Predict the structure.
Amino acid sequence: MRPLIRPASGKYLGASIAGAPTSPTPLEKYARLTGKKPNLVVDYAAWGDGFNASGVRNAWASGALTLVSWEPRDITMKEIAAGRSDPYLKEFALAVRRLNLPVVIDFADEMNGAWEAWGPKHATAREYVAAYRHIHDVFTDQAVDGVIWTWAPNIVNPDPQVALAPYYPGDGYVDWVGVIGYFTRYEGSFAAVFRRTLTELRTITDKPIIIVETGAEPTSRRTAEIGELFAGVAADEGIIGVVWFNQAKRADWRLEAGSTESLNEFRRLAAGARYGFDVRTRVRIPR
């Protein structure tokens, strides 16, 4: 799996798309829209959901890894760390092992965000770290070795400021450091969105960094902001990829919702040889 954790060449060009990867159709439509297949696809899982093995197979068949964004609602970090969900975790882990394909697991991201059920208003940093480590240990006990473990805070916000270091589970538990941040009306450059957070993260660890969720609002600034995003990722050797959130939530982040100019800019930049590679060519899966 090492070539997937830190690719020697190329960067991940990922996407979060409604209906994917459970169905291959959204992946195919997105590839036609952008001119390039994503090689990292997000699958959201609520706590209690089973492992989406068929979705992971769909993504792999298209040359992409699946990133499982695992959201532990209706349970506390203390309860997870204490083993309350162990039967569920063991079942999930065994399903991952049986599939025998690499998968990315991003547990309880944006843990520094007050809006999350596992954020600072609901759990201490120590409780969060204990829960993360416990899940990792359960997978290890079940002999699951195909997971790329990802820890992904939201970009730091000065109001209130939440230090990231206390939430870091440790290098022995993390393969990728993810970052979540969006281009909004207040932040139009790559540096404005990400620099402060990247600087803080690099005082914590030298693990590979991936932007696991980003987008730009469909305004007249989107074309320039897409350029900023690609340029910022290209210029930073420590960033191994980026995932575009192509969904309509708080804003309509879908590329098809913006101007033809902004979509064409995304297509032009995504076409570069640096972005996207077939993950199946980077690792041999034993059978």
